[in-house]
Amino acid sequence: MKINRKILKRYNKSGFTTLRKSEMTAEGFNPKFFTHYWKNRKGEVYLFVYEYGFLSTRNNGKEKYVLVTWQDYMARNLT
What we know:
Elements: H1 2-11, E1 16-20, H2 21-26, E2 36-39, E3 45-49, E4 52-59, E5 62-69, H3 72-76
Antiparallel strand pairs: 1-5, 2-3, 3-4, 4-5
Protein backbone atom coordinates (compact mmCIF):
# COMPACT_ATOMS: atom_id res chain seq x y z
CA MET A 1 0.00 0.00 0.00
CA LYS A 2 2.93 2.29 0.59
CA ILE A 3 3.88 2.15 -3.11
CA ASN A 4 0.26 2.67 -4.21
CA ARG A 5 -0.15 5.73 -1.99
CA LYS A 6 3.14 7.20 -3.21
CA ILE A 7 2.11 6.76 -6.86
CA LEU A 8 -1.40 8.18 -6.32
CA LYS A 9 0.01 11.18 -4.46
CA ARG A 10 2.56 11.91 -7.18
CA TYR A 11 0.05 11.81 -10.06
CA ASN A 12 -2.88 13.50 -8.34
CA LYS A 13 -1.55 16.92 -7.41
CA SER A 14 -4.73 18.75 -8.47
CA GLY A 15 -7.23 16.57 -6.56
CA PHE A 16 -8.83 15.23 -9.75
CA THR A 17 -6.85 13.67 -12.61
CA THR A 18 -7.30 11.07 -15.34
CA LEU A 19 -4.35 8.88 -16.22
CA ARG A 20 -3.65 5.77 -18.30
CA LYS A 21 -3.54 2.57 -16.26
CA SER A 22 -0.36 1.51 -18.03
CA GLU A 23 1.55 4.52 -16.65
CA MET A 24 0.68 3.64 -13.08
CA THR A 25 1.17 -0.11 -13.36
CA ALA A 26 4.58 0.44 -14.98
CA GLU A 27 5.61 2.15 -11.74
CA GLY A 28 4.37 -0.72 -9.57
CA PHE A 29 0.79 0.35 -8.82
CA ASN A 30 -1.41 -2.62 -7.84
CA PRO A 31 -5.17 -1.90 -7.67
CA LYS A 32 -5.74 -4.93 -5.43
CA PHE A 33 -4.24 -3.06 -2.47
CA PHE A 34 -6.53 -0.39 -1.00
CA THR A 35 -7.80 0.68 2.44
CA HIS A 36 -11.49 1.40 1.78
CA TYR A 37 -13.99 2.27 -0.93
CA TRP A 38 -16.70 4.81 -1.64
CA LYS A 39 -19.67 4.49 -4.00
CA ASN A 40 -21.05 7.62 -5.65
CA ARG A 41 -24.67 8.25 -6.65
CA LYS A 42 -24.04 6.81 -10.12
CA GLY A 43 -22.97 3.53 -8.51
CA GLU A 44 -19.31 3.93 -9.43
CA VAL A 45 -16.96 2.49 -6.82
CA TYR A 46 -13.81 4.44 -6.01
CA LEU A 47 -11.08 2.51 -4.21
CA PHE A 48 -8.94 4.48 -1.78
CA VAL A 49 -5.45 4.19 -0.38
CA TYR A 50 -5.94 6.39 2.68
CA GLU A 51 -6.85 9.84 1.26
CA TYR A 52 -6.13 9.09 -2.41
CA GLY A 53 -8.74 7.33 -4.52
CA PHE A 54 -9.01 5.85 -7.97
CA LEU A 55 -11.76 4.65 -10.30
CA SER A 56 -11.09 2.23 -13.14
CA THR A 57 -12.68 3.43 -16.39
CA ARG A 58 -12.43 3.17 -20.15
CA ASN A 59 -12.17 6.33 -22.24
CA ASN A 60 -11.79 6.31 -26.04
CA GLY A 61 -10.96 2.61 -25.91
CA LYS A 62 -8.14 3.10 -23.42
CA GLU A 63 -8.03 1.77 -19.85
CA LYS A 64 -7.64 4.67 -17.44
CA TYR A 65 -7.85 5.62 -13.78
CA VAL A 66 -9.74 8.64 -12.53
CA LEU A 67 -7.77 9.86 -9.50
CA VAL A 68 -9.44 11.81 -6.70
CA THR A 69 -8.66 13.03 -3.21
CA TRP A 70 -10.94 12.20 -0.28
CA GLN A 71 -13.51 14.93 0.41
CA ASP A 72 -15.56 15.50 3.58
CA TYR A 73 -18.89 14.88 1.82
CA MET A 74 -17.78 11.34 1.02
CA ALA A 75 -17.84 10.43 4.72
CA ARG A 76 -21.62 10.96 4.79
CA ASN A 77 -22.11 8.39 2.02
CA LEU A 78 -19.78 5.61 3.17
CA THR A 79 -20.75 2.11 2.12
